[in-house]
Each structure stands twice: as structure tokens, then as C-alpha cells.
Amino acid sequence: FVVLTEKDRLAWACVNSLTIPNSLPNYKSRCSSVMGKKALAVGRLSYVKGFDRLVDIWEQIVTVCPDWILEIVGDGELKTSLIEYVEKKNLKDSIIFTPATSDIYSKYQEASMLLMTSRLEAFGMVLCEAQSCGLPCIAYDVPCGPAEIIKHNENGFLIENDNVKSFVDKFVLLASDKTLRTRMSQSAKVNSTRFLEENIMHEWELLFSELIA
Fold it and tell me: What confidence tens digit (pLDDT) does each residue in 137-188 have?
């Protein structure tokens, strides 16, 4: 029984179980400089992805970091209501909505950090992709993926779910400290290599070898 995260494996409590995460097939060598003032969020604009929570967080962030921009990349059933919510909060000058794109890596390379406020995550592929471009990540610690991708205080921050103040504080810390962003960027790049396609395929090959032995 193969699952994506160790938390999943422990939750299922199967006798014959194994954790093999998703792979990162489109590994890029070019990283973001992380010197710009743009934060990025990527995903399906649906309830489970929690972009409404991110808008609430951003409302507080812009009072401290008014020169930063948040770009939300994606499409989904809540796009219209999210745009209206942003307008209602008078945040349309600091939040940009961009349609889903096949060239998402160019967006990672333009940003300086990746934000995730999902209510649930099966794994969190965008975290791996962002880290491969050197982006520090800030995410709510929700089941199950973020904690197995982000190393807290090394390549980003894991925030207690629904702790808005902590999320804002860590963003402000990262936004105001270029040295910290650079250090976390380098660590993120290294961490992302765990998910390279050749490394994950090796785990599958080992499993199949054991099964047919």
C-alpha cells in the first residue's frame, strides 16, 4: 500500500505500507533572485485551497509591507467571488489574479516567496516546484503534505493552522530580511532535489524489485 506522505501511512496503519512522494519532473536550473517584492500563490481557486484565507492575511500584510504584491495564479469555481472579495477589501492594487499557465516556472522565477493557505493538501506539488526555483515557502501546517516538504526555519516556515498573526509575522520577517531570504532560497533549492524524478523512480524500482524477488 503506497501513499504520498508519512502522515498518511501512519493514519492508514496498514501492515505492508510504504511512503513514496510525487516526483519533480520539470526541475529547473535557473532560480529566482528572491530580491523582488512579489509573493506568489498557485493553485485551483476552490474552497479547499483556502485563497480566501490568504486574502485575509494579505489585508494585514499590506499595512506593514505596502510595497509588496501578491500574485495568485490559477482558475476555479471561486475565481469571481475571490476577485469580488479582494475588491471589497480594497486590495486590488496589491493582489493580481493570473490565469493558470503551462509556463508556471517563469512565475516562480519572478517571485521571492511562495504562500500556501490550503485547508487540506494531499501533498503540495507547488511547494516542490517553488523550492526548485529557490523560493522560500510559508504554509499552514495542514494534513498532510506541507510538513514533509518544508523544513521549518530552514527553507521556509510552517504555520499553525489558522494562526493568522504568526503567518503575517513570518511573512514580514522574510520580506524585511534579504539575507534570510537568500539563505532559505539556497536551502529550498537543495531540499527540492529529494523529489527529483530519478530519485523517486529509484524508490519505485526498489519496491518492484522486492515484490518480484
Answer: 999 999 988 999 999 999 999 999 999 999 999 999 999 999 999 999 999 9
Q: Which of 142, 149, 184 is nearest to 167 (CA)?
A: 142
Of the candidates 130, 125, 148, which has an alpha carbon nearest to the alpha carbon of residue 185? 130
Count Cβ neighbours within 10 Å for each residue of 130-167 and write b for 16 or more, e otherwise. Answer: bbbbbbbbbbbebbbbbbbbbbeeebbbbbebeeeeeb
Residue with cell 506522505: 5
| Number of Cβ within a 10 Å radius of residue 108 | 23
CB neighbours of residue 81 within 10 Å: 12
pTM value is 0.93
Strands 113-116 and 2-3: unpaired
- The count of other CB atoms within 10 Å of the CB of residue 190 is 13
Q: What percent of the chain has pLDDT over 70?
A: 99
Q: Tell me if 124 sits within 8 A of 149, measured CB to CB.
A: yes
- What DSSP letter does each residue of 101-139 carry, written as one string? -S-HHHHHHH-SEEEE--S-BSS-HHHHHHHHTT--EEE
Amino acid identity of 86? V
Look at residues 146, 78, 66 and name the one whose alpha carbon lies nearest to residue 114: 146
